[in-house]
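In this section we walk through a basic example: taking a raw amino acid sequence and producing a predicted 3D structure, encoded as C-alpha cells. The instruction is simple. Fold the sequence below.
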Amino acid sequence: MSEDFPEMPDFDPKLTRKAVRRGLLRTTSSVLAVLLALALVAVAGPIVLQTRDGREQRMVDVLGTAFKVYNPAYRVVTNDCCEVTPLSTSFTVTAEPLRPVGAISPVSTYTISQSLFGRVGHLPLGRNANTRLSQSLYDVGTDLARKEDVRKVLDRLPGDLRALAVVEFSAPLKPEELQSWLGSGGRCAQSVVYERRPGALPITWGAITWDRGTFTEDKEGCGVGLSNFRSWVARLDEDDDPNLRRFDLTFDRLRKASISGLAYAYVDETSRVESLRKLIDDPHVRTIRLADVTFDLDHPS
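The resulting C-alpha cell sequence is shown next.
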C-alpha cells in the first residue's frame, strides 16, 4: 500500500539564504543578550556588594578617621563619599599642615581607596610627612627638649608670637585631671596624645577627628573629645585590624588608649610665646616641644 507524500518544493537559493540569515541573527541576538546580562552582573554586582548595608559610610568612618589619626600634624577634612567602581570604592580628603592659629598653610587633596575585598590601598602622608609637629610628637616620652633648654629658646623669642607646640605632662593625667587642669588655667587642647610611643607617632585625638560623634566641648576644654574617641573605637572590631595597620594603628592599641583615657601630652595651636614661658614652670608640665611660631597678623598685640 503506497502513501501519498506532498511534493517537495523546488530548491530556492534566495529563500534558503534568508532562512540562514534569520537563524544567524536570532542566534547572535541571543548570545549578545546573554553576554550583556553577564556584563551587567559583573559590573553591577560588585558595586551593589560594596554599597549595601551602609558600607560606604562605614568606610569613611573607619578609614577617613584612621587617616586623621595617622596624620596628627595635619588638619584633615573628609569630602563627600564615594566613587564606586567594580573593583574599588574611594573618597578624597583635603589636608593642610597644622600651624599656629592665624598662619596660612597649603591645602592638598588625596584619595583613599578600598578594594573590592575590603583592603585599603596606598596611603599618602603618614610616615613620609616629616613635619616639625610630627617630629615633636615622635619625641614625646624621650629625654629630648629639657626644660632648661626650652626656657632659653622661649626667652629668645618675641613674647607676642603665636606658637604651635606639644605640651608633655610630667605624668599622664586621667580624664578628670585633664579637665580640671585645662579648666583651671583657661587652657585649650586642640588634640590630646593618648599614648606614649617614643620614636613613632602616638595616638592623638582632636575635637573633630571623628565628625559624626558626640561633642562635649563644655566638659573637656576646647572639645578634646575623649567620649568621641571612645564612640569611634566602639564601632571598630578585629576585622578592621588589617586596614588599621596600614595606618600604623592596631585595634588593641586604640581600644587600650580609649579605655584608659590617659593624656600624655596635648597639641597647642593658640598660645603665645609669653604664655608658654609661664607654662614651662607648671609642675604638671614635663617639657614643651616647640614646633612652629608666627606673627598673628590678624590679631596683633
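Looking at the output, two observations stand out. Confidence is low (pLDDT under 50) at residues 40-53, 214-221. The radius of gyration is 31 Å. In the next section we compare this with other chains.
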